Amino acid sequence: MDGDGEARRPLLSEPASADERSVISHPPVGTEEHDVEQQEDMDPGDPQHFSDRAPWLRAAVLGANDGLVSVSSIMLGVGAGSSDRHTLLLSGLSALVAGALSMAVGEYISVSSQRDSETADVETEREEQARGPAARRRELEELVKIYVDRGLEEELARKVAIAFTKRDPIRTHARDELGIDVDELANPLQAALASLGSFVVGAGIPLLAAAFSNDQRIRLACVLIASTAALLLFGAVGAWLGGAKRIRAALRVLVGGWLAMGITAGTGRLFGEDPA
């Protein structure tokens, strides 16, 4: 309108003023948009997924804890039944060697079986793809169903399945149908060495603690104190890796270790020929 008494209305094509741009880019305080913006500004980024933290490290902590509890318990049991220093250290060393090798052999056998199963499953998929067009269509429909079950629309699921199949059907079926990463098949030797090493680390703590004292009571006290500190440490590290409360987890591990050591020490004292 062109009347002189009426203020001219801004055209849609006119650029916004600085104040208007400020209101648009920064919503007024107290509004829902402002609260959302503040929350986004305070967001430190993507949340930490505890399952992403190195699985091998969690396994190493478990192996070290196993070595610590078993060897310290054996040493306390032997020490409660015999005052001979050589016998105590020999029992601890024997437990370290036997336990570490047992862990390594068991892990090697277990992971080898897992790898054999994974390899056989991948080979089965390879043979299925080689049977001809009809078999490949069946495999494609399996992929489509998997993606639909995961929440995709059927049309999109089919497009995704076709695209992945064209790129590498064996890898795709191994990953999405079997849950196998063909590039990271289980390594038996690596697993065995990791188990052996972690067990030795844990088992070496009570053994070293007892090695530098000639007094029987001091030796056993050193084993108990060193084992207690290590149990708390392993429990806290395990809780940190899993995102749990560290104090509660550390105390839980400590109580379990104390029970094992106490029962073994009681057994040694009950049946020992030369109780300390």
Automatic annotation (TrEMBL):
CDD domains: Nodulin-21_like_1 (cd02432). It comes from the Eukaryota. GO terms for cellular component: vacuolar membrane. InterPro entries: Ccc1_fam. The keyword Transmembrane applies. Residues 1-11 have a biased composition (Basic and acidic residues). GO terms for molecular function: manganese ion transmembrane transporter activity. It is found in: Vacuole membrane. Pfam families: VIT1. The keyword Ribosomal protein does not apply. Keywords: Ion transport, Iron, Iron transport, Membrane, Transmembrane, Transmembrane helix, Transport, Vacuole. Its main location: membrane. GO terms for biological process: intracellular manganese ion homeostasis; iron ion transport. It is a multi-pass membrane protein. It catalyses: Fe(2+)(in) = Fe(2+)(out). Belongs to the CCC1 family. This is Uncharacterized protein. The lineage of its organism: Eukaryota, Viridiplantae, Chlorophyta, core chlorophytes, Trebouxiophyceae.
